[in-house]
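Interim report to the steering committee. The following record documents the input for AI-2 transport protein TqsA (401 residues).
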Amino acid sequence: MQIAVMPMQPRRAERVLTGKHAPLSGPWTPEQVKWLRRIGIVALVGVVALFLWNIRTILPLFLLGLCGAYLLNPLVDRLAKQGLPRTLAIVIVFTVLGMAALSVLILVVPPLIDQATQFVQACLPPKGRYYLLAQQLLTTVERRALRGDVPPFIEESVRQMWEQMGKFLLGLLQGTLASLSGLFSFVLLPLIVFYALQIFDPMRNRLRWWVPAEYREALAELVREIESLVGRYVRGYMVLCLAVGVVDTLFLSVCQWVFGMDFALAIGVLGGALYAVPYFGAIITTGAGVLAAYTTAQHHPIACAVTVAVGLIGINQLFDWFIMPRLVGHRVGLHPLTVLFAVMAGGTLMGVLGMLLAVPVAGAIKLTLQALFPYHFLPDTEQEDAAKMTVTHHSEGGDKA
């Protein structure tokens, strides 16, 4: 059985495209219809919010998949413009990235596993290096506490740290086992990115027609500015993180060769991964490097720790001041206090992923506020000029009256 599809009438098509609909007929007044629409919108938003809250455990996976599709979409569009079918372009991009990721896994993962194993063994009794250091520290504190040289709260803190060490190792083992159950999510992630890439452009064009015609062009311009900012920031920082990880690893490898310290590769990879987190990433990487240098160096541990601290801080400053502005462009124009607040808020809401996305999201919010309230984002001199022009305009209008 065939179903006949009636073509849309021209007047109706014009109303749909322009967003202008005829008022509802019936016993309702226009004011009542307006309030009914508002109530319906509020109810719809509430239902959607309740639905998202109930499925909040799977939202980070889909959000990560959409971010991956957003980053890969320009590459797919460029291949599609060459005449390739979009599905074939997506397959080519996935193949190239998959081969690159496989190469990195083969080269980096085995040494990382080896260093992680060494770290766990160094924490285990009875001959682990960190175990012996902690035991020596506890013995020293207890001996001085008996003589009254150490306040009671310090002794209690050291005892709690000793107890937490065993809990940490147990949690590390449990986390490793739990991560095996998370492999299913990593299998789903490429599928989410693949299908999101197929509908990315059509979905964006369809969403554009949901906006009223009088706001459509302004919103499109705002979206283009946000895409430019976020895309430049994220893609640039991906390259920067890779470069920082390589440079940190090379520098720490030299320190390992000179002083005999351990965990050079692990700390270098950590430095590259955390470079995208403003302020906190450099602090965590430098702290981990200094701790590893002081506790694992075969000779001159203090000199090794100082060298590692100066080197890691210098590498971060070099990339921050000279390489990052050229590769990423100027910063997103946020005050350092705003950046700190955004990073802490992102970490509270979404953990590490929230800290990574905090700065571009804050930049997008700033662009949106600039579009809505442009006067409040003008420099002080321009605000004064605008205020003077407004006063002059009103005074001239009063004189004419």
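The chain is about 85% helix and 0% strand. The committee is asked to note this result when reviewing the revised timeline.
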